[in-house]
Write a structure and sequence with these properties.
164 residues, alpha+beta, Protein Transport Mog1p, Chain A, 7-stranded mixed β-sheet, 7 strands, 29% helix, globular, Respiratory growth induced protein 1, membrane, RGI1
Length: 164
């Protein structure tokens, strides 16, 4: 038997507008990236990442086998939506704050957009790290057709003019 290949599940894409976008498939690797991004890189205040993953509670229920995930685990299930919202509010945002080493982030700019196709939770806040202010925006989307969650993470530097 061969060992399972543990290569990082990340792809770097350059959009038509020239923006660099990192796409992750694993929550732990995304969190590791955030932690190392603030430690190692000067571009921590200008990052755009996307993550597509199954929430831990879904994988736990399916015994860590994506093939066993129920078809009912989607945005039409009240139980799934409730558990996903708890996962985002109590775990994901907290882990992002810890990875960024910014315990003062409160993500007080919250909104929820809901339609038949999907539910989107938006979170935003401003932070400061190494005397540089930036805006952080997180968008979490669940769709009606499967349990996969899309997370969009973006930081934008704030200049003195944009703060005033």
């Amino acid at each position: 038997m061969t060992k399972k290949d543990k290569k990082p599940k990340v792809a770097t894409i350059t959009t038509k507008s020239g923006e660099t976008l990192k796409v992750f498939e694993d929550l732990a690797q995304f969190e590791d990236f955030l932690k190392h991004e603030t430690e190692d890189d000067d571009d921590f205040d200008n990052v755009h990442c996307q993550l597509k993953y199954y929430p831990p509670f879904v994988l736990h229920e399916a015994h860590d086998d994506p093939e066993k995930i129920k078809d009912t685990a989607n945005s039409h299930s009240k139980k799934y939506v409730r558990h996903l919202h708890q996962h985002v509010e109590k775990h994901l945002l907290k882990e992002i704050k810890e990875a960024l080493q910014l315990p003062d982030l409160k993500f007080k700019d919250k909104s929820k957009d809901e339609d038949f196709e999907k539910i989107v939770w938006n979170y935003g806040d401003t932070g400061e790290f190494h005397d540089r202010k930036f805006r952080i925006s997180i968008s979490v989307t669940c769709k009606h057709d499967d349990a996969m969650v899309d997370l969009d993470y973006k930081t934008v530097p704030l200049t003195e003019e944009s703060v005033i």
